[in-house]
Write a structure and sequence with these properties.
- The chain contains 7 helices and 11 strands.
- It is of the alpha/beta class.
- It has a single domain, classed as Class I glutamine amidotransferase (GATase) domain (Rossmann fold), CATH 3.40.50.880.
- The strands form 2 sheets. It has a 9-stranded mixed β-sheet, sandwiched between helices. A two-stranded antiparallel ribbon has the order 5-8.
- Helix 3 packs across helix 4.
Length: about 240
């Protein structure tokens, strides 16, 4: 990627202070997951930074957030409009967690709190037949572990969107919208330290309600297949 335009990471908010202090900011997590892939430009719309024009970046990754899509915050609505425009322009886009939900919302889907509550920890996702020949999913195991931390979900798909993977909790874990646009509810950029801190963080007490912290911690190891989706997306740019 060194001779190409930079990858754009759209950071959709800061982690809570206790998480940030322990394991850093979201760009650090993405850098660690991707390794040396060339230049990465970070833009923070929540800090009123302008979203760049088509043609100034090779592709975009829309990060997770501790905000909620249903809050319809002005910076989030502005990003949703921008996401819709760049997808229509054919720019490669990968959405992660909040980014997954925002892409679905921007393209006409419905996002809201999951009726069965939050999904937190290292949990399996299952691919379906439609995923077999997908360029970012082909060759991955039929079932693989992912790191998850979310209260809201995509409840209704946008028109023409295709589901490629599901968990027992959420049927819309992986969605493809077009040849260049895909999103995942899980976090391919997380490592074990980030997941463990989220499980133990005071800031996550609402999401953790009714869950056994020690049991979740005992299941955390690694999610290489999930991380491979992020790496394949960047390698394809």
């Amino acid at each position: 990627m060194s001779d190409k335009l930079p990858l754009l990471l759209v950071q959709m908010g800061h982690p809570p202070l206790d998480i940030r202090t322990a394991v850093g900011e979201q760009p650090q997590w993405f850098h660690a997951a991707l390794g040396d892939v060339g230049p990465i430009r970070v833009v923070c719309p929540f800090d009123d930074e302008p979203l760049p024009a088509v043609g100034t970046f090779s592709g975009a990754v829309i990060s997770g957030s501790w905000a909620m899509v249903t809050d319809k915050l002005p910076w989030s609505e502005r990003t949703a409009e921008w996401v819709r425009d760049i997808i229509q322009a054919g720019v490669p886009v990968l959405g992660v967690c909040y980014g997954h939900q925002l892409m679905a919302y921007a393209l006409g889907g419905v996002v809201d709190y999951h009726p069965q509550g939050s999904e937190v920890g290292q949990l399996p996702v299952t691919l379906n037949d439609a995923a077999l020949h997908d360029p970012l999913l082909s060759g991955l195991p039929y079932n693989f572990d992912t790191f998850l931390s979310h209260e809201q979900s995509v409840l209704t798909l946008p028109p023409d969107a295709v589901v490629l993977g599901a968990s027992s909790h959420d049927p819309h874990q992986i969605i493809r919208y077009s040849a260049n646009a895909l999103s995942v509810q899980f976090h391919p950029e997380f490592n074990a330290a980030v997941m463990n801190k989220i499980i133990t963080s005071r800031s996550e007490r609402v999401a953790m309600k009714g869950k056994d912290r020690d049991e979740l911690l005992g299941k955390v190891s690694d999610t290489p297949s999930a991380r491979a989706i992020l790496q394949r997306f960047v390698a394809s740019l």
